[in-house]
Amino acid sequence: MTAADYSVLTADKPEKSLTRGKRATGGRNCYGRITTRFRGAGNKRSYRLVDFKRMKEGVPATVKTIEYDPNRSAYIALICYADGEKAYIIQTAGMKVGDVIMNGAKSEIKPGNSLKIKDIPVGVNICCIELLAGCGAKLARSAGQYAVLRGKEEDYAQVKLPSGEVRMVSVECRATIGEVGNSEFMNVKMGKAGKKRYLGMRPHVRGVVMNPVDHPMGGGEGRTSGGGHPVSPWGKLAKGYRTRCPKKTSSKFIVERRKK
């Protein structure tokens, strides 16, 4: 078992004005039927309202606390703007209590600051990137993730994402300088089944150990691998089968596909 390093955290309880209740579904829909298998129980959580838009420009903000967020792999930082407004943002690597950050074109090129891509130099590591201007960050938000700004042409910039995909993004979209903190998250080993249960994950049953009535890969004498290509319980190909629609409109923005 390995655990995360929580020494960087500076607060035990979240800011009450920036939290909301969160109801667990247990993988069930509005009719009480299981639509996502192997989910249930888990510790109770409250949702932290994270500001992914960073629209408040030209007002300096001070980092008050670094906090744990049970709803994501990255840590979050509570910032307080000069006019008294508070907000949660994704913590970038190296961000600590007392740091001053800012949003907008007049911001420095330093980790934690948020600018439009047209104001960011080529070659800089960025994270929390918008796909559509004003719609909030969608890309590179997980712990330790970052993308590289490879080039800019008129209305679009080429961004190399953590998956290896090179994608065209509008220069009017916002991004945060630096990489997301808590990069050691990928090295955490649960060590026991109980830790998975705390996170709301129930035991996962393999299809090959089921009966033929329960799964297409079930049945057979002795131990069998299932035969043929792995499939889901409903016969849909799994493990390698591409599910992206080839006619998807946004495919024209992909310059290089991600690595297989």
SSE map:
Blueprint: E1 19-21, E2 46-48, E3 61-67, E4 76-81, E5 86-90, E6 100-101, E7 114-116, E8 125-127, E9 129-130, E10 137-139, E11 147-153, E12 156-160, E13 166-170, E14 174-177, H1 193-198, E15 254-256
Q: What proportion of the residues form beta strands (DSSP E)?
A: 15-25%
Which oligomeric form is depicted?
A: single chain
CATH topology of the largest domain: SH3 type barrels
Major β-sheet annotation:
7 strands, antiparallel
Order of strands in the sheet with most strands: 7-14-8-11-12-13-15
Decide which structural class fits the backbone: mainly beta
Q: Which overall shape is indicated by the principal axes computed on the Cα atoms?
A: globular
Roughly what percent helix? under 10%
Note poorly predicted spans: none
**End-to-end CA span:** 30 Å
Based on the structure given, which CATH architecture of the largest domain is correct? Roll
CATH hierarchy, class of the largest domain: Mainly Beta
Q: How many distinct helices?
A: 1
Number of strands: 15
| Global Rg | 22 Å
How many domains?
2
Give a nutshell description of this structure.
The protein is an all-beta fold. The protein folds into two domains: 16-185, SH3 type barrels; 205-260, Ribosomal protein L2, domain 3 (Irregular). It is built from one helix and 15 strands.
